[in-house]
Amino acid sequence: MIVDKPLGLTSTQCLARVRRMTGAAKAGHGGTLDPLATGILPIALGEATKTVAYVMGAGKTYRFTVQWGAATATDDAEGEVIARSDSRPDRTAIEAILPRFTGEIMQRPPAYSALKVDGARAYDLARAGNAPALAPRPIRIDAIRLIDLPDADHAVFEVDCGKGAYVRALARDLGEALGTYGHVTALRRTRVGRFSEDRAFSLDSLDDLCHKDAAHAYLLPVETALDDIPALVVTGPQAERLRHGQSIRIAVAAPGLPPEGELLVMADGKAVGMAERSADEVRPLRLFNL
User: Fold this and answer.
1) CB 3.0 to 4.6 Å from 19: which of 27, 97, 176, 225, for a disulfide?
2) pTM for this predicted structure
3) Helix (H, G, I), strand (E, B), or coil: what is residue 224?
């Protein structure tokens, strides 16, 4: 399911509501959104929870608003202001620095993040007055675009990025690069992998369908989350071998498949599971009980 997470809920709270509505025994989400953020939150139910790691690793698109002139403890509007500046960048200055934030860059995660430090969440340490100094780490920014300048104090951006990028940290770093401060005042995730806003639905609409016993209208097949992974179609006997933990052999020159790496195995139009190919050998990694 592709949920449009509302403002004010954590991803975990949103997941809990979907699980309660649907009665799913197992559920997981494909990427955390802060309570301040709205937008695309893929939620996996049942066997689809085995695809969560693949969804979390997919590229994402965010639209966000930065307020210039103030730094906050959380790098967003929920935190207290810790520094101020009278400087306000113009369009020319903003567009000039954007190439510095494109490609493989180093980013220091916000102190208020879910990263663990010596077994404790960074945000718990920060709330206790012991904000950790998190080390910069590599992230990937595929593109960043200036969308609008509604006034001198605000700028609206859109960014395409990889796993692990923090938009709050990006706003902070943009401000520093422009000789001022910046924090996020609005944030919306508009894409996760191939899941976009046109496939998302609200919690209210799901609740309505659940009361009508029609929640299946929002369900997508398990393999939808694995669209970017090369698919190998196998026979029934081959699928059974994989389900029993045994490897199978395929032609070395199998058309349309990479010579090695992960594959989505399909049989009779259904996903069998994930497998790893090495030359002519395919061995099972994670199987679906569908």
Assistant:
1) 27
2) 0.90
3) helix
